[in-house]
Amino acid sequence: MKIAVFTETYTPQINGVVVSIETFRKELEREGHQVYIFAPRFKRGVKDTPFVRRVYSIPYLWKAMREQRFCIPFPWDLKGFRQLKIDVIHAQVTASNTGYLALLAGAIYRIPVVHTYHTLFIEYVHYTPLPTRIAKRGVIYLSRYYCNACRRVIVPSSVIIKELRSYGVKKPIDVIPTGIDRSLLGKTVPFPRERYGIPSERRIITFIGRSAREKNIPFLFQVQKLLHARSLPVHLVLIGDGPERKTLEKQADGFGLSDWVTFTGYLPREEVFGILKDTEVFTSCSMTETQGIVILEALTFGVPVVAIASMGVIDMLKDRKGGVLTPPDPEIFSREVYTLLTNHDLRKRTSREALEKSEHWDSRTTTLKLLDCYSKAVEEKIR
User: What is the b/e burial string over 146-157, where b = at least 16 CB atoms within 10 angstroms of the residue's CB?
Assistant: First the structure.
């Protein structure tokens, strides 16, 4: 099968969508399929394979979106597309310019379009200059229009189905989470504590995600203060970057935690995995995750997880194996972290459960589900 993936975010960018695209691409190619990527072009040198087509793009002017690219497709971006003999088109970002280019290609060449609804955009309207009520209506309209223009829709967790149905999405929806590529697990770089000035006796808790408002990171500062009040030498490592990083650094200082919080910025995945190996508890405080690939990565390294019960995280931890779900209450959250850090037998059992659970989220298994979705889209188009 030949698949064309259209996306508004791709390497060298680092985020969950890119991880998802690359994980599925590698597995699809291992299964003998060919994947073509249509993605934003960057000025700085990016080494691509012949199967990556770059679309002209410019950076966003909004501070909050500086890491993203605004694609401006031209008609010649589809030059030679017919000769590729694509069987199915996979659009990765809702209502983006490359997303509409995917619909155009599907209409011109009569190819079914499948779409993955990665992000619950209604939770991100604070980035727009529009009044919240108007922005939410716009998100609902665009999501409904785009999803219904595709042959099938993919969501990473079951809770998103109800949301899309409430928007008026009528097309078939498949739940296909991104799995973990286990071949990457051996490629780790040891966590250099000395580089970040973290003493060896400190216990490491970790968060991975964008330094942005919707990630709810100040919640972890409250949790850490409560842990320190219980005389636990806990050091918080925040992996990632974003528009709110400087503000968060000031907030950490305001909590008196500047020597107890480390902002690493974006890191290669082998370094991220090295930190996870040294992590005793992984934390997730975001209220907007549709899956939380980083939680799966933590589970794969046997790291117990404490997370706020929200969105796609519930699918992973609702059985309380490998981690704990809590309400958005720092007292309760800190109590669960404290219990895991001080109860050796519990942490050992939870770590074992995490490893066992991660085996069910293997990337080959989820890729076979994706291929089944593609086959159904092709069959429905023919019918």
Answer: bbebbbbbbbbb
Question: Please, what are the averages of pLDDT over each run of 10 residues along the chain (383 residues)?
Answer: 94 86 95 94 75 84 64 84 96 84 94 91 67 85 94 90 93 92 80 92 94 91 96 95 92 94 92 93 87 87 93 83 94 97 96 90 92 94 71
- How far the first Cα of the chain sits from its last, in Å, is 18
Helix H or strand E encompassing 37: strand 34-40
Question: Distances from the Cα of 80 to the Cαs of 38, 115, 248, 293, 311, in angstroms?
Answer: 13, 23, 47, 35, 41
Q: 16-30 and 293-300 are packed helices; what angle lies between their axes, rounded to 10 degrees?
A: 60
Query: Shortest CA distance to 241 belongs to which of 9, 118, 68?
Result: 68
54 touches 40 (CB < 8 A): yes
Nearest C-alpha neighbor of 377 from the set 113, 81, 24, 71: 113
Ramachandran assignment for 169, one of left (phi > 0), alpha (psi -120 to 50 degrees), beta (any other): beta
What structural domains and CATH numbers belong to the chain? 2-179+362-382 (3.40.50.2000), 183-361 (3.40.50.2000)
> Are residues 138 and 95 in contact, defined by beta-carbon separation less than 8 angstroms?
no
Closest CA to 356 of 302, 310, 316: 302
At residue 177, the 3 state secondary structure works out as coil
pLDDT at 133: 84
pLDDT computed for residue 242 by the predictor = 86
Query: d(Cα 283, Cα 328) in Å, to the nearest integer?
Result: 12
Residue 207 DSSP class:
E
d(CA 143, CA 139): 6
**Look-up of token digits 């009528």:** 170
Residue type, position 216, single letter? N
